[in-house]
Each structure stands twice: as C-alpha cells, then as structure tokens.
Amino acid sequence: MYKNLAAALAAACFMSPVFPQAAAPAKPPLKIGFVYVAPITEAGWVRQHEEGRKAVEAALGGKVKTSYVENVAEGADAERVIRDLAQQGHQLIFTPSFGYMEPTLKVAKDFPDVKFESITGYKTAANVAVANARYYEGRYLAGIAAGRLASNAGYVAGFAIPEVIQGINAFTLGMRSVNPAAEVKVVWLGAWFDPPREREAAMTLFNQGVELIAFHTGSTAVMAAAQERGKLAIAYHSDMRKVAPDAQVLAVTHQWGDYYTRRAQAVLDGSWKSAALWGGVKQGMVRVDSFGPKVPKKVADEVLARQKDIAAGRLHPFRTHSALRDNGGREVLAAGQTLSDAQILGMNFLVHGVQGKLAQ
What we know:
38% of the residues lie in helices and 20% in strands.
C-alpha cells in the first residue's frame, strides 16, 4: 500500500496541473484633453481643432481617450479648465488659442508629468510645446484670387497680434501682386468670436463700397453677410460653402489632425519632447481649396500653381521685388530681400495698400 502511494506521489510531481499564465493588465488609454475658445460650430477655428481631435481617435483607437471643453474664455477661466483637466488625469492637453499661452504655462509648472501643447503660443517649458501654422501663406494665395476678382477688399480682424497682422499684410501683398492698385480696408473687432459684431463689421465695410471681404475671427457670420449682400468672401479656417454657396471665393483651411496624432503617439511611445513647430503649406498644415462657383478656372489654376510654388520654396509672401513699405511710407525691407522668421513673428506694421491703423 505504502509502495503504491509513494509511486503515486512521485508521479504527481511530474504531472502537476498547468495553470494558464495570467494576462498582463491592459494599459489604460492615454487621456487627452482639448480646450476650445468658442463653441463648436459647423465651421471655423474651433471646428478645425475638433476635426483634429477626431482624427486622433480615428488613428489611435483604444490607445487614447479624448475629451474637450468648449467656449472657454481666455484668462482665468482658461486656467481653471486646464487645471481641472490635469487634475482629472489627462496626460496630454492641447490649448489652441493665443490667450491660453500664459494659463497653460502656469498650470504646467504644477503638473510636471503632464504634457501640454500650446497652439499659437510661443513660450515653451520642459513639458510645454508650441505649434503654429504659417497662416500668412494661405492668406497670400487668397489675395491673388481676390486681386483677380475685385479692385478692393475689406478685412474683419480680431486682435492686432502678429499672427493677424501677418495675414492682413500677406493678403494685401497677394492682391497687389496681380492688381497693384488694390486697397484693403481693415476693421478691428477686439474679439475672436462674436457673430453679431462680426456681421455688423462686414455690413459696415460693404456699405463703404467694399467688393470682397476676408476675416480673422471665429464664426461664419462674415460669410453669411457676404452671401446676403451678393458680395464675395474668403472663408477662413474651414470650407464655408454651406453658409455662403455663392459668396465663397475659396477657403484657407487649417489641418491639425496629423500634428495632433503624431504628438499623441509620441506620448504613448515615450518620445515626446518640448518643441516649437511653425508649419505651413509644405507641411500640409495650411491649404487653399474649396473654390466657389464665381471663380474662373484659370484663376483657381493660378492660385493652385502658386500654392505649389510656396510648398517648393520658390515663392515667399514676404520676399520683395521692390522695397516693402508700411502704409505710412516707411521702408521696412529693401528690394530683393526676404523677411526673416523672427521679423515675421514680431510683425507690427501694416503694409502699403492697407487702409487703417493697428488697434491699440
């Protein structure tokens, strides 16, 4: 009996049951937060960033979990919202508005393990990267189309920061490159998103005889005003033909999906580093497209050809053939020269051909 028991025990030592190996716990998704300066609408600045957020989800699937807070005012409200997102465990936070820069930096100091992306900002930190687009490239191209279709233009502008000034100047230079006598009249709004006042400014410009209008604000109100008045308009941020099917000349669109996805992937694989990117047509961050029905094919073809020239480095909106002067007559760049990136980033003058002064 004992002999058989011993044999059985010995056999059991070699026939131990095999337990399935425990699966490694699933890695939780990367929580990504987005803060929007205005409500999400069908088109405009916020819409393009919302499309970027959706692109991240489509590309990375279950690896990420995104959320957003919309209509957040710049300043104290922005700091509160950004801080809340960090406290809720978001590991990557995108803050796409110029006035979010300082609140982002302030919160980042208190959350060194969280990565922040200040879009349109210019100050970095160890855990804060900045990115912006060369919007002025698209503005120059839009100006070429405008110059072929009109002798003058209006421009509804938000704030007199370099990014906006660059756009006004590039648009004017593009317009005057094909129509040297063209004039551009500017109205400063003092707001990024205020549809009633955007509309009022557009109507004021039309009442002053403006034939075509461009804008740097966040809604579609200017486009709707142009459609109502039977005028022409340049869409900004998004294609706005749904609002202005007859008025739209073209759209200067911003493409954020690729950048947002690459930065999220960098956090996932541990390669994220603070950096400063200023991309344009060449990088696919700015594009002119969505031509309207009143644009002759030869004009559209000309604009698209110049877009290829910018992408290839053959054309620069701020490279001069003759001396570049401001609208007070002062020479700011000698003939045959090109403004440096530093000069463009600090732009604080309006070029000859612009009617108006910088808002204080």
